[in-house]
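User: Second chain of the day. Same drill as before.
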Amino acid sequence: MEGRYAEGTIEIVTYDDHELGPQDPGGTRLLYTITEYHYTGEMNGNGHHAYLQRISPSGTGPFLVMARIVGSLGGKQGSFMTEGSGTRGPRGPIDVDWHIVPGTGTGELAGATGSGKVTTTGDGVVRYTLTYHVPGL
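Assistant: Same format as last time:
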């Protein structure tokens, strides 16, 4: 996708895991997780996320995530929704591929599209990248 490029960091505001269903005899867990993150950089604001995760006894596994990001992107104000999937390590999500859900942009971000990645570095810093298009930018 052609467009503008954004990058920055993500800080955890809240993070709350919840078990789904009865305990699995093999030790695999099914979780839903509700989080709020603060984004800084070209994308600046807060994200409200819901994860569905399958966690193995080693603490790793796949997940799906949906979110609403409220703030600014490329200096334009508004919100948009995202969807993604990734891998969780023993200390939380480590790699996410995500995209802006078409048609969910509000305010100056109406019509926003894009896709990106979230990675957690060895020192625990969470970074995002996003290639995006906002009409009028």
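The chain has one domain: 4-133.

User: Great, on to the next one.
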